[in-house]
Design a protein that fits this description.
Oligomer: heterodimer
Largest sheet of chain A: 6 strands, antiparallel
Strand order of the largest sheet of chain B: 7-8-9-10-11-1-2-3-4-5-6-12
Largest interface: A-B, 77 and 84 residues
Shape of chain B: globular
Largest sheet of chain B: 12 strands, mixed
Helix content of chain A: 25-40%
Strand content of chain A: 15-25%
Helix content of chain B: 10-25%
Structural class of chain B: alpha+beta
Distance between the termini of chain B: 16 Å
Order of helices and strands of chain A: HHHEEHEEEEE
CATH class of chain B: Mainly Beta
Shape of chain A: elongated
Number of strands of chain B: 13
Radius of gyration of chain A: 21 Å
CATH architecture of chain B: Clam
Number of domains of chain B: 1
Chain lengths: 160, 266
């Protein structure tokens, strides 16, 4: 339904503060859309606002710190742990198939400190460094952690 | 939590679609909601008999020392386009009041087990072998509130452990209505409808001496799409789970990972 409406007219007709400055409004909308769209590219196409309890427990606007402190104390005693096969359970939040989205991360170097909800579909080896589990996928190292109820893989600096 | 991929180009059509939905949302926000016009003239009805029955539900729940309850639930997820999708899940709770809980959440996309023994809460992803434990002393309700606030881990239907406590939240209710009689799973019940900031909710309470919630529907009203969570509940008040049920013993090959705390709000 939104496709058939001329968008320029809508901005004007909607008046309010933005109505007097259509260009400003359009710029704001564009900016918002670019950021939403960028997020949408990574399995974030769903807003997760649905309450499962009447009593509100969480602060919806809480800030998640996406910077990860990479522990630089490298333990030379690296044990390869073969117990886990990463393909067994790609524990994807929403089930949009993660392969296409993640493939780009695997080919190029992943940005340290960034997070992804799933690992590349193949080529990952679980590695224990000290007491911490990492997943090594080619040149990229990931540390799994829970963010809320979701498993997220944080890209860390290569440990060897 | 957000992912920052190296975005090189953005398809034009998606952007314009997005603009359309943002504009539509703006119009919705600008227009006064129809229901507000209706209720503006008359004060919302807060039926005292309904509130009394809900208080009885809370007291009755808190009086149960050991029980199990199984929830069959559906939850709406809203796409950025505004389209709603519905996902199915089950939750199995085993409870020893006041401070021991085991919960198994099985949704279409995610399996999670929770163990709470009065001191430590553990979240387990059984299929990929990850678990995280955090110290959280207190009652079940206190632990569920704390883990939601500090770690954004929301265990569904926390209300079942908050009703009948000082954090039960019934004071927030602005409108309470007895809709009428209903039957849930062959059991006679009363259907109540309630409103409070951010949420409209409905609860079906078993008639008679066992005032148990048999069904709950929660509508999130501060989202323009008004997504819903709906659960029907099957109660076993004779269940008496063993103490070992509430303590997590890592499975072979399981790995402990961190549960990221919520950063302090600016």
């Amino acid at each position: 339904m939104t496709h058939s409406i001329p968008q320029g007219t809508l901005v004007q007709r909607n008046a309010g503060a933005f109505g007097r400055f259509p260009a400003l409004a359009l710029a704001a909308v564009l900016l918002l859309c670019f950021s939403l769209d960028a997020a949408a590219d990574k399995n974030r196409t769903v807003q997760n606002n649905t309450r499962t309890s009447v009593n509100k427990n969480t602060n919806v606007n809480s800030n998640r710190n996406t910077n990860v402190n990479v522990n630089s104390n490298k333990n030379t005693n690296v044990n390869v742990n073969a117990n886990r096969h990463v393909d067994v359970d790609v524990d994807v939040d929403r089930g949009f198939h993660p392969v296409a989205a993640v493939a780009t991360v695997a080919v190029t170097a992943a940005v340290i400190g960034s997070m992804t909800p799933s690992l590349p579909p193949s080529g990952c080896v679980p590695v224990m460094v000290g007491n911490v589990l990492y997943q090594q996928c080619g040149p990229n190292w990931y540390q799994p952690q829970y963010v809320g109820t979701s498993v997220q893989y944080v890209v860390v600096a290569p440990l060897r | 939590m957000s992912i920052q991929p190296p975005v090189t180009s953005i398809p034009r059509s998606r952007v314009s679609r997005c603009i359309g939905s943002v504009l539509a949302a703006t119009m919705l926000l600008a227009a006064p909601p129809l229901y507000a016009q209706g209720t503006a003239a008359e004060a919302p009805v807060r039926d005292a008999a309904v509130m009394k029955r809900l208080a009885e539900v809370g007291s009755y729940l808190r009086a149960q020392k050991h029980f199990a309850v199984k929830a069959d639930a559906v939850v709406d997820e809203v796409l950025l386009s505004g389209q709603k999708l519905q996902f199915t899940s089950t939750v199995d709770y085993q409870v020893s009041s006041p401070d021991k809980l085991r919960a198994s959440v099985r949704s279409d996309r995610k399996y999670r087990d929770y163990y709470f023994d009065g001191k430590t809460l553990t979240q387990v992803a059984p299929r990929n072998g990850y678990y995280a434990s955090v110290p959280l002393p207190g009652t079940i309700g206190e632990a569920m509130t704390a883990v939601a606030q500090r770690y954004e881990v929301e265990i569904p239907l926390a209300d079942l452990f908050l009703w009948g406590t000082p954090k039960g939240g019934l004071d927030d209710v602005t409108a309470a209505l007895l809709v009428g009689p209903a039957r849930i799973g062959g059991v006679d019940a009363d259907h109540f409808a309630l409103r409070q900031p951010g949420v409209d909710w409905q609860v079906w309470v078993e008639r008679g001496a066992r005032p148990l919630p048999l069904k709950v529907v929660i509508t999130t009203t501060d989202d323009p799409a008004q997504p819903q969570y709906a659960a029907t509940l099957k109660w076993d008040l004779k269940a008496n789970p063993a103490a070992s049920v509430f303590t997590y013993v890592p499975a072979k090959g399981a790995h402990r990972i961190e549960l990221k705390p919520v950063a302090a709000a600016k």
